[in-house]
Amino acid sequence: MAIKGKKLRDHYKNTDRDKLFNLNEAVKLVREFASGGKSDQTIEIAMNLGVDPRHSDQMVRGVVSLPHGTGKSMKVAVFAKDAKAEEAKQSGADFVGSEDLMTEIQNGKSDFDRVIATPDMMGLVGRLGKVLGPRGLMPNPKLGTVTNDVGDAVKAAKAGQVEFRTEKAGIVHGGIGNPPTYADCDQNRRQRKANPSIN
Q: How far apart are CA 114 and CA 93, in angstroms?
């Protein structure tokens, strides 16, 4: 059994764990718990959808753009050529290339959080399936990461677009914010923005 730290035990003592908190109360509690920590912590949301993701028609997956971002800076890699590569660079992509970028990734480069590709590059990117797949970074048209509009895709990723998908137990889980960074932002708007995409 995992050993709980003193700080967590103290939080448990001072919190009614049988009470259902509304969103404002819950966010206030999370901010109190996070204060005084050595590093920035993430507010996460978990929703049990009551679906069975083993059935393809019950698989829930997509992206949502949070109105205030996530508090984390995203590094974006883009597979594109010529004009599309230039568009990606101007939009703020951290790494842009084609065969050269593929070689770097095969040689161990992995300091990026999102991979975007133009459709004509997917033949090339497909060779990286064993590297990108396990990390959840493989570009996917359903997530908007396989697109000819690389400029908007890069801007959305940089602005705090979050990917979500159901886990084995039918739960959608993901980070929606960072208490120190978003102490003054309206968390209600954040959840309202996320929920319609999942429902």
A: 10
For residues 174 and 75, give the distance between their C-alpha atoms in angstroms, rounded to a whole number. 18
How many domains does the chain divide into? 2
Q: CA 72 to CA 160: how far, in whole Å?
A: 8
82 shares its domain with 133:
yes
pLDDT digits (tens, 9 = 90+) for 125-150: 898 888 888 888 899 888 888 999 99
Range of the domain at 177: 19-69+161-198
**CATH number assigned to the domain comprising residue 144:** 3.40.50.790
**Phi and psi of 41, rounded to 5°?**
-105, 165
| Residue that is written with structure tokens 């050595």 in the block | 38
Q: Please work out, in degrees rounded to the nearest 5, the angle formed at the alpha carbon of residue 113 by the alpha carbons of 143 and 138.
A: 45
Tracing tokens 């590093």 back to the chain, one arrives at 39
